[in-house]
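[User] At your convenience, examine this fold.
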Amino acid sequence: MSGADSLPVSPVRWTGAVRIIRSAFPPIDLFEDIADPADWPLLISAEQKTNPRIMSSIGNLDLVPVERRVGGPGASWLMAPFTHVSADRPSRFTDGSYGVLYVAKVFETALFETIHHHARFMARTAEAPGWTSQFREIVLSISADLQDLRGAAGHPALDSETYMASQGLAKTLRSGGADGVVYPSVRHAGGECAALFYPDGAANPVQGRHLDYHWDGARVDLVRDAGSGAVFRVVELP
């Protein structure tokens, strides 16, 4: 089961799904506006007359088809992954030439997914132990019909070390009109994740907790709820 045409399509309807992102990324005013997304180019043109740096915050809006753009409160969390892309930031289902919105079905899966990637970054840059970057939890819902990898154990797209097969699969699926992929988490046993190719597959994003990750020099060993101050130890199950 390795070809794109062999994957079943499943309706994915998740409420209370979770995405964890760096707190360094602020909301983008344009996306939060109640204006119709079809009118955004006109608003950008007007705003640029007084704020020439606006495009650096919005990113490349042309990467999202007009009919698939979303706006209103919380829309920054859905739009930004698609307008701020870079070949320097590839991921499992994109080579960085287009955006993907990654969402986990439950908080614990989102936590382990981000811990893995944060730990790899900290190790590559030889960071000293301590409390590091702050993250924020985004709670949202998903309603999309997605290509389903959950019954495809051993599929090359689920490789834990390389993204070559998964990026190739995603490019084929996306060019064929697919809305995204639902797949078993590679970082959290039993967890499920979705990779959306367009922002309108998700809705109702609201900010949840602020989280701090503690780096012990080898791994992320502690997570702190910045609001309550509660600290939790990360236990990696075999």
